[in-house]
Specification:
By secondary structure, the chain is mainly alpha-helical. Helices cover about 75% and strands about 0% of the residues. Helix 1 packs antiparallel against helix 9, helix 5 runs antiparallel to helix 9 and helix 15 packs antiparallel against helix 16. The radius of gyration is 21 Å and the shape is globular. The protein starts with 14 loop residues before the first helix and ends in a 21-residue tail after the last helix. Pfam families: MFS_1 (PF07690).
Length: about 425
């Protein structure tokens, strides 16, 4: 009787990487969420104009788009792990320096630096998950998606009390510690011995893969495969419309509620609830995406909730507000599914790097139009009816793109089809 070698334990040799992935998730939204609740304090101290405040709301998505796109060529040249260390250090430095900024231009400039590091981290995480956890893409994506939701929900609750007790500069700067701590596991991965890294590569090689391997085509070939793929463009548009709605709600929800007659101090609490409600979907969405032939029905369910929340804000924003907030909080839950699909729909980590950069670069560029465009439309019309109707219409674009993005194809795989899936009809 032939003895078969025991399968490797699913997490052995990869716990440091898993810790690094989760800690990066905790750092990815802090620079965005920590300022909004204390914006009045910052504005009074560094003399931010109304135009600069509006620019501050647009900077996150634009930084994610620009610097996320730059992460791909940098990672190809120096490696995923060193690039992640550099991104985390960059975000921490930016947070410290903007906390010490004495002028509005300096505050904006150092905010861009902090967000640049986080934008690079956004793009680097999916291919790192693909590289180290090809057999656990769903659960690991779920783990860092939960951490990302926490990084969005906690700062609005903590920022104001800390600012009142110690000043807004401490409230802004203390979050740099998260970036520093998040960098430590990746430093360990980078500096560990050649033998240890070879052992880790062997563990990953022996792990079962959900996608068939593909012939490496090189940097130009990978880019050509991704940028010419209808699947990649559908994922980018889906990501963009989902992020556009999310960042528009973050930018304008407090003002929508104040205009409806609610007290001005409730905005931070409702924004925290909006972020927290993404946690359940972050836990189960990526796992289901890895198991389902197509996660499109899940996306449709989330969009229906989102649409119902918009309708509630249109018809009765001051009554039933808690219901509308719950529905709005569930709405953007396609986000962790899209992150999982970056790894699930690529045959190699190299393709995942390019796809992640393309989807998030294009997606965040589209999302950047949301807060600014909706604000301009509100200024032109004087109420929130037209802006909310536009957001409802864009949900239709999201659903149409998601139908194509969720099809079980694999970029760079044999026949561009997910293994085990039925042949797609023409």
């Amino acid at each position: 009787m032939t003895a078969h070698p025991a399968a490797p334990a699913p997490w052995r040799g990869r716990l440091v990487v898993l810790l690094g992935v989760v800690l990066v998730g905790l750092n990815l939204r802090i620079a965005v969420a920590a300022v909004s609740p204390i914006l009045d304090m910052v504005r009074d101290d560094v003399a931010l104009t109304s135009a600069q405040v509006g620019l501050l709301g647009t900077v996150p998505v634009l930084s994610f788009a620009v610097f996320g796109s730059l992460a791909t060529p940098v990672a190809r040249r120096v490696g995923l792990e060193p690039t992640m260390v550099a991104a985390l250090v960059l975000s921490a430095v930016g947070e410290v320096l903007r906390a010490g900024a004495g002028t509005a231009p300096a505050f904006l400039a150092w905010s861009v630096v902090a967000l640049a590091g986080m934008g690079m981290g956004n793009v680097l995480l999916p291919p790192l998950v693909k590289r180290y956890f090809p057999d656990r893409i769903g659960p690991v994506t779920a783990a860092y998606s939960v951490a990302l939701s926490v990084s969005t929900a906690v700062p609005p609750l903590v920022a104001l009390p800390v600012a009142q007790a110690a000043g807004w500069r401490w409230s802004v700067g203390l979050w740099a510690a998260v970036g520093v701590v998040a960098a430590l596991p990746w430093v360990v991965v980078v500096v560990r011995s050649v033998a240890a890294r070879a052992h880790l590569r062997e563990l990953v090689r022996r792990a079962p893969r959900p996608a068939a391997s593909a012939v490496t085509t090189g940097a130009r070939g990978d880019a050509r495969v991704v940028w010419r793929s209808p699947l990649a463009w559908a994922m980018a548009v889906t990501f963009g419309m989902n992020s556009l709605g999310t960042y528009t709600v973050f930018a304008w929800l407090p003002e929508i509620l104040v205009d409806a007659g609610l007290p001005s101090d409730v905005g931070g609490r409702w924004l925290a609830l909006f972020a927290i409600l993404g946690l359940p979907a972050s836990l189960v969405g990526p796992v289901l995406a890895a198991r389902l032939r197509s996660p499109f029905p899940l996306v449709v369910g989330f969009v229906v909730c989102w649409a119902a929340g918009y309708v509630g804000l249109l018809t009765s924003p001051a009554h039933g507000t808690a219901v509308w907030m719950v529905l709005l909080g569930i709405g953007p839950s396609a986000f962790p599914i899209l992150l999982a699909l970056i790894g699930l729909r690529t045959a190699t980590p190299a393709l995942a790097v390019v796809l992640s950069g393309m989807v998030q670069g294009v997606g965040y560029a589209l999302a950047g139009l949301g807060p600014l465009g909706i604000g301009l439309l509100y200024d032109a019309t004087g109420d929130w009816t037209a802006p909310l109707l536009v957001l409802l219409t864009l949900l239709g674009v999201l659903v149409g793109a998601a139908w194509r993005a969720c099809r079980p194809e694999v970029l760079g795989g044999p026949g561009e089809r997910a293994p085990g899936s039925p042949t797609l009809g023409r």
